[in-house]
Amino acid sequence: MTSTRNSRAPLANRQSQLILTTLESVPGKEIVQHYGLVQGSTIRAKHVGRDIAASFKNLVGGELKGYTELLQEARQEATDRMILQAQQTGGANAIVNIRFATCSVAQGAAELFAYGTAVKVQ
Amino acid sequence: MENLIVFAILMALGYGVGSYREKKHYEDIRRREKQTLHVPMMNFGAKQPLPQAQDSALFVGSVVITSDYFKNFSASLRNLVGGRVTVYETLIDRGRREATLRMKEQAIAWGATEILNVRLENSSISGQNRGKGQVAIEIIAYGTAVR
Amino acid sequence: MDYIPTEFDDDINVTPVHPLINLGYLLGTVFVFGLVVFGSLGAIGAHLAAHMGPQTEANIGKALVGDFLEDKAAPADLGAAEDTRPEYLKKLILSFYATGSKPRLPLQVYIVEDALPNAFILPGGHIFVTSTLLEQAESENELAFVLAHELGHFEARDNLKGLGRSLVFITLASLLDFGGSSSGVINSTINLSSMSYSRTQEAQADAFALRAVVQKYGHSGNSLDFFRRLEQQKDLPVPEIELLSSHPLTENRIESLEKFARDRGMKTTGPATALPERLECPSFKPCPN
Q1: Distance of alpha carbon C180 from alpha carbon B79, whole angstroms
Q2: Most C-contacting residue of B15, B28, B86, B87 (CB-CB within 10 A), to test interface
Q3: Which residues of A touch C6 (CB under 8 A)?
Q4: Bigger pLDDT: C174 or C287?
Q5: Does residue C177 have a pLDDT over 90?
Q6: How many CB atoms are located within 10 Å of the residue B85 CB?
Q7: Which of C199, C223, C230, C243 could form a disulfide with C145 if both were Cys (CB 3.0 to 4.6 A apart)?
Q8: How many A/B residue pairs have CB atoms within 8 Å?
Q9: For C242-269, how does the pLDDT look when each residue is reduced to its tens digit (9 = 90+)?
Q10: How far is A79 from chain B (nearest CA, A)?
Q11: Which CATH number does the domain B2-146 belong to among 3.30.110.70, 2.40.37.10, 3.10.129.10, 3.40.50.2000?
Q12: CA torsion A19→A21→A27→A31, rounded to 10°?
């Protein structure tokens, strides 16, 4: 268990070992074992500079690129953490039925949450 | 000057009581999670072959959590700096585990062998007070238990 | 399909960092960043203050004073229209100007009820004197020094420099939601703008005041009596303004002013000029109570 804790490799490496899907199963494969729910969450805030920039952007509309990036990064981290939990199960090679949720926790801070079921497929 | 003293007292109170209660809550959560670990929970449903069962029922577990003064202050600073709001991570983590446990314990009391199609959701319910840095979040966990 | 239960580590979804360390890091970052912002805003504020036209200054002053008086409305203010004391104080202040020169804006003097002996100046040449200061003043020399000190801030545009900075602070504070309603914001603007003089600014205003009284009375005797009394009354509740602002400690202030006078060969003793009678009552008439 500790070995997985110490090897927080970048997402790309981990993802290659795990199948992530929003389907209930992995097409062409059969679920042989499951490990229950796995979840990852992170809460992020943007720094005040971005807040100010966003309030100006609010006047004219359009995409808030800074926020898009930030939430993307945060969602990536939530996914990361979910994958870490799946790796702790010791045998999972896929996470099925993945769902994302976003919640604004406090002014300027948003929670990004990802969950799914860790399974072993063959 | 008085404002500073009041602030210091609130911070100390928020930190002292808040972290003590958090510690107790985590101990409680870990104990109950061990007890309920044998019942599987998954978030896929009928597209997988359903387990042999006679009965099914809906179970919902929910919790509304709020933060302490210390966390609020740390978070408001974090709002300037940007990055992970670590003080709220424990808050949400506790809330979600608590909600899940409530659902699970009810289901186990009913005699569940498995809980299927579990969904987790949260929403901020602090309304007008959100602008004042207050946090109130409802977390709900729901799923179908079979026996 | 088998089920294999797993217990997960707690620190996957919770960053393992101690809350106090986290707070320390945040405070440090905000503090350092705040210093940088404060410094650059100070520079901008000083620049703006140096180039602000008298009309702009008068307008800012008007807005601030309106809010301030509304907030401070005391019985004495209501009768202030007929009070002749502000006129006397104004004459006293104007006597510091050499013949032919005058302040860049018409000065206004107000007397406000307050338990603390104090005087301060808002942007736009609005000078406030508390009733307690008038009650406690024992000679014209010491009153003149206090007024000249505020005039020094006015001439150096210190209060304008402070204002620019404090406005930005309040904006930041309201972003952080530390401030309350808008009236609270305006109040803190006034507090900050009347308090946020640096030590250097204070020392320069003192030097200005000392020169002014020496020029007017020919000596600096009795001018510092007010501060000497404050020093003796140390056990009395210290005015908050003295604590929070960077006002030099009274003791050092007297010492350095005396040294300043000696170094320049100013006469440090001389007869005290008497105050007009019944300065503590409106229009110098016998007090109603």
Answers
A1: 19
A2: B86
A3: 35-36, 88-90, 118
A4: C287
A5: no
A6: 27
A7: C223
A8: 108
A9: 444 445 556 677 888 888 888 888 887 8
A10: 15
A11: 3.30.110.70
A12: 70
Mean pLDDT of chain A: 82
Interface of A with C in 3-62 (CB under 8 A): 5, 31-36, 38-42, 48, 51
Which residues are registered as beta bridge partners of B116? B144
Confidence of residue C289 (pLDDT cuts 50, 70, 90): low
C192 in a domain, yes or no?
yes
* CATH superfamily, region A2-45+75-121: Hypothetical protein apc22750. Chain B (3.30.110.70)
Domain ranges of chain B: 2-146
What was the pLDDT predicted at C185? 47
Other residues' Cβ atoms within 10 Å of the Cβ of residue C246: 12
Q: How many residues does chain C have?
A: 289
The pLDDT, as a whole number, for residue A13 is 45
Q: Which of B91, B121, B116 is nearest to B25 (CA)?
A: B91
Are A36 and B134 an interchain contact pair (Cβ–Cβ within 8 Å)? no
* C16 is a domain residue: no
The span from the CA of B36 to the CA of A62, in Å, is 48
Nearest CA in chain B to C19: B87
C-alpha to C-alpha distance for B35 and B29, rounded to whole angstroms: 10
Out of B38, B70, B76, whose CB is closest to C177? B76
- CB-nearest to A48 from B80, B120, B122 is B80
Mutate to test the interface with A, among B43, B73, B74, B92 (most CBs of A within 10 A): B43
Nearest-by-Cβ selection for B74 from C10, C26, C176: C26
- CB atoms < 10 A from the CB of C224, how many? 25
Mean pLDDT, chain B, rounded, equals: 88
Query: Judging by DSSP bridges, how do beta strands B114-124 and B136-146 pair with one another?
Result: antiparallel
| Domain span holding position C116 | 52-284
CA A100 to chain centre: 7
Which residues of chain B have a CB within 8 Å of the CB of C245? Answer: none
The answer to whether residue C17 is domain-embedded is no
Please give the helix or strand (H or E) that residue C141 lies within, else none: helix C140-155
Residues C160, C123 contacting (CB under 8 angstroms) = yes
Asked if C13 lies within 8 A of A39 by C-beta distance, the reply is yes
